[in-house]
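Lecture 7 notes: from sequence to structure.

We start with a single chain of 203 residues. Read the sequence below before looking at the structure.
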Amino acid sequence: SALLTLVVISLITFFGTSLKTPDQLAKASLGRYITPGQAQDFIRSNHLNRSVLVRYADWAAAMVQGDFGTSYITHRPVSVDVEPRLVRTLLLALVTLLVAVPIGVALGVHSARKWGTRTDIALNIAAVVLSAFPEFVIGLLLLIVLAVKLNLLPVDSGQGLAFGSLGAQIEAYVLPSLTLVVASVPFIMRNTRVAVREALAAP
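Now the structure, written as tokens:
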């Protein structure tokens, strides 16, 4: 389930960061030339002198209440760093749904109405081929064609999102959204095709 996946990922991430010793974490956060006293203060204030399991349990209990802790690097609440990225992710998902669902449903209905014809076969072949490509491959191909070769979209959308105008921010979403749309439409189309065909064949 999704919840189990989140728990496993959190365990791997938490225990992965705990591979460093408390002294190494203190130096990574405060600098290499901190005094032993400063390191010990950092370790005590962040409870790094406790066992990994106890620290994970404390973190999980706080996380459930909305407290994701404080970053050792930025010294800010993790939620402050996560929030803008979460908003962008949700916006990207919304844009993808608004574009992919109508296209996929329309193609699926058209394919079902043309069942067995060349149009139906061509659409299904295209859907199977696109479904075989992972999202990162589709994204890379679109990046090469639209951004590198045709220069229609920015190669790096990070600057546009962080510092660009409204137009630049909208433009920064085009390539990621297009990648997800191209990856999603084949699945929506094939499911719609089967559902519509069953409905048309029903007595």
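The longest helix spans residues 78-113. Keep this in mind for problem set 3.
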